[in-house]
Amino acid sequence: MSVTVRIPGVLRRLTAGHDEVEVTGATVEEALEAVGREHTGFLERVRTGPGQARPFLNLFVNGQDIRFIGGLGTPVYEGDEISIIPSVAGGR
């Protein structure tokens, strides 16, 4: 399945400046692994290990938070969009 992975600004240096990457995969994890195969260092910045997303990254499939619908094992389908959103903290 061809899906779009939207890359946040903080990770674009790892994807040659691309804000979106088209890859194939049947799950969120497979899609992220595909990005990692194309762009060295990317996978290490979004995962702590197989099946585990970094704690301060939020991942969404078509606007739905994967933490509530299957984690990295969430299925993806042709035309889906995976968004990687870094958590924001701090302030007053």
Layout: helices, strands, pairs:
Blueprint: E1 2-6, E2 20-24, H1 28-38, H2 42-46, E3 47-49, E4 52-53, E5 57-61, E6 64-65, E7 81-86
Parallel strand pairs: 1-7
Antiparallel strand pairs: 1-2, 3-4, 5-6, 5-7
Straight-line N-to-C gap: 43 Å
Total helices: the number is 2
Radius of gyration: 12 Å
User: What is the N-to-C order of secondary-structure elements (H for helix, E for strand)?
Assistant: EEHHEEEEE
CATH 2nd-level architecture: Roll
**CATH top level assignment:** Alpha Beta
Average pLDDT: 94
Count of beta strands: 7
Largest sheet, in brief, is: 5 strands, mixed
Q: Order the strands across the largest sheet as they lie in space.
A: 2-1-7-5-6
Kindly give the count of domains. Answer: 1
Query: Would you give the CATH topology?
Result: Ubiquitin-like (UB roll)
